[in-house]
Design goal:
By secondary structure, this protein is an all-beta fold. The protein has one helix at about 45-55, and strands at about 20-45, 65-70, 90-105, 110-130, 135-150, 155-170, 175, 185-205, 205-210, 245-255, 260-270, 280-285, 295-315, 315-330, 335-340, 345-355, 360-365, 365-370, 370-380. The protein is built from one helix and 19 strands. The two termini are about 35 Å apart.
Amino acid sequence: MGHKSHKKHTVPTATNSLQDECIRVQKVYDWVTDQLSVRKTIKFTDHQLKKIECAMEDPSRRPLRIVCKTPEAPPLFPLSGSEHTEDDFFCEQVGEKRDVSVAIPGGGFADAQLVDLLFTTDVKVKVVDRHGKLVTDLDVNASVFESFVLCFPNGTDLFCRITKIVCRIPSGTVLLNSPAPDSFDLEVVFCVDIQVEAEVKLEVLAKFCSPRDNDLLAPDLIDECPPVEFPEQCPDIFPRPNCDCSLTGEASGETDSEDDEGKATLLVNICDDCSLSGSSMKLNFHDTDSSDGKHSFTFTATSFDQDTLECKECGDGLKFIIEGSGETDRGRTLDFKLAVVDSDDDQWFEVHLLNRRGKVVFNTGTVEVEEGELTIDDCITFEDLKYKRQP
């Protein structure tokens, strides 16, 4: 028998294999988007009204139209090279930031900063005839002043961008007959993107890295260098946690409750992009038993509790659970509990509405979906990822 070697063999590592790296990046401490609007009443001058009346006296030029044109804002992406350099619109901070303590979703308070921002744009308004020929025009300036609560610690920079400007004329854009109105309403909408950033060093995956020791040179230092400290984060404010799963669709069926007999219709769009922001839920109940003294109603959710969101396996499908609060079409504020099951065999949902004392005032019971469809999709979160590190 030959001698079998037990020598260990080292498997060579290919070029460009994964390894620990420290990178310099712009870290986002807070990110807010919003839509702000302002309405102004614009008056024509006597000279402009004379031009409009003259054009309206010509049947071949009627009707006239009022059109407005706003500056073209740079796209949201890419970020580099999209800075606006003209002076036709801008966003700027007014005054200094102030420290505040604010209530956060889910309960509790967090330290934040209050910032006042001014958004300004020039709008070109034209009156044109039916052929598009200019009758008269005027320049309008519109501004919005808004306060924002942000995670804006010392050491970070505020970047305020206007990503789109829209103008509307709610009072109507068509001029049919004389005399022409001497004024009109103009509404300007600002789509804004606000980010708080700081340049930091991160060790992939997503943790701060520390600078290397100055071990290549060993000079005799007299003064101590201060430690490198990054600005504190605001985890209670941003980023918000992801959803475990999403729920979308519209479905209806008969209620399974002796006290609340009727037909329930559920319209939901919760965590559509795996984020609770922008979620919606509406429950419509049609009462088919008029003898019990109850009435049909519509309940609309106004808030969702992230901590109550739960997604778990249920047979061959998924079960979606969440709680929150909302209002009925009669103005009554109630809390709600929602449960939905989506499986290959069937679908059902159940909604409880509770008053402020926690008493159930409405219960659909288990509603088997007879019309429509509800879809539960699993969201991949950071906790779902498994990273295999090198030994």
